[in-house]
Each structure stands twice: as C-alpha cells, then as structure tokens.
Amino acid sequence: MASDRSGERAALDAEVEETQSTIAKLREAVEGTEPGHSSRVALKKAEEKLAELVKHMTRRDRTG
Q1: Which of 4, 28, 29, 44 could form a disulfide with 39 if both were Cys (CB 3.0 to 4.6 A apart)?
Q2: Per-residue exposure over 11-38, b if at least 16 CB sit within 10 Å of its own CB, e if not
Q3: Residue 34 CA: distances (Å) to CA of 4, 11, 31, 39, 40
C-alpha cells in the first residue's frame, strides 16, 4: 500500500513539474498580448490545474 502511495506521489510531483514548466513558457508567451488572447487563456487554465494539483496533494498528505 505504501508503494502505491509513493508511486501516486511521484506521478503527482511529475505532473506538478510539467505544469510549472508549461506555466513558465506561457508567461513568456503572453507578454504584450491582449486580454483574452489564447495564450492568456491557456495560462489561466494551467494555473488553475496547478492549484487543483496542489490541493489534491495537500489533502492526500493530510489523510496519510
């Protein structure tokens, strides 16, 4: 069971890292773009995804 948890945690960590990388690239891409530009929309979605991942990880860590 602990092995399953550590595997899940590793997968979540990898997804967080990938999302953070995507956010960094999108932040560079949105410079100088208009509100509503597709890059800005994608950035907002990626930031929301990261927030959900962090919430999930926090809940998971609290429950053991």
Answers
A1: 29
A2: eeeeebeebeebbeebeeebeeeeeeee
A3: 44, 35, 9, 9, 8
